[in-house]
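SUBJECT: A protein chain and its fold
Encoding: whole-number codes for local backbone shapes
RECORD BEGINS BELOW THIS LINE
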Amino acid sequence: MNKISVRLADWHKDNADIHRIRSAVFVAEQHVPPELEFDAEDPTAVHFLALEGDYPIGTARLLPDGTIGRVSVLRDWRGLNVGDALMRAVIVEAQNRDLTKQMLSAQVHATPFYERLGFRVVSEEFLEAGIPHVDMVRDSREIA
């Protein structure tokens, strides 16, 4: 396996790769309707691509208010710390933009992953696109 890297993505230039990854993970695997997966916030979000060599294998986005979302890694690369690398890059970028409070809606099964990164659950469980979620928050000022 090649080295995993994460870079900022350009929504227009990298759209095909972002769309391919999110469609595979959310639309095909998790049956999220495409009209819910791709929304009006995509063009103004900061996007990230995780790559193995030059091949995009994961993506995430950061909204101007510090909300992180659409975190997705292709099935064959899960369990290889790609999600960790992706999230760490998003957190660093958020902090560089003075977004000390990062928020996300996590699928319930993924909460331990986000807790390892300093997020804490701040809501009751709810359904989003038919999948159980919780809201989570990470405040960089509280984390040493």
The mean pLDDT is 93. The chain has one domain: 4-142. The longest helix spans residues 15-29. The domain at 4-142 is CATH 3.40.630.30 (Aminopeptidase).
